[in-house]
Amino acid sequence: SQTIHQWPATLVQPVGSPLSLECTVEGTSNPNLYWYRQAAGRGLQLLFYSIGIDQISSEVPQNLSASRPQDRQFILSSKKLLLSDSGFYLCAWRNTGNTEAFFGQGTRLTVV
Amino acid sequence: DQQVKQNSPSLSVQEGRISILNCDYTNSMFDYFLWYKKYPAEGPTFLISISSIKDKNEDGRFTVFLNKSAKHLSLHIVPSQPGDSAVYFCAARVNNAGNMLTFGGGTRLMVKP
Question: Which residues pair with B91 in a beta bridge?
């Protein structure tokens, strides 16, 4: 069966510090991978998606970047965090041919 | 520009009654619609989906209705249970290379015992 791991679960970082959130998927190959953010009291906003290794598409301009160094690894990064980067970050995967995407447990990021 | 909207931020229902969660969309290129359920501090879990060529899909206590002409879909939960209390997100997909899901803002459902 397929599983998705996302870590850390919570993170408190000072403004200006770097960020690295990691997501890995097991039990499948060549999945589509996604990073979403849920700001407080708001819906899920798509940040990045990837259809293959080193193939990243950005949906919104922002202070963040994403990388996919391996088939089942998706990393969300920032060189310098802003207060507005605080939120709940979710990684998701989907097999081509399927409709639904499956989400990780999320990372609560608080920038102070 | 919000392509998927859930206009009710919250809904309160008595246990055993029907819960109806609504969703409106603007993009006629969406070919699939999905509902997710989310508990606090957890990732959303997939509930049910419907293809744009159908008008109804049922799975146990959950039924999704799609009205393409009105660009409206709804999720019915019958009977509602306290464990159904969560935030429900409507999502829609365009069939392209990334098959990204566009989410609504969510509706918080509270089922009272």
Answer: B34, B103
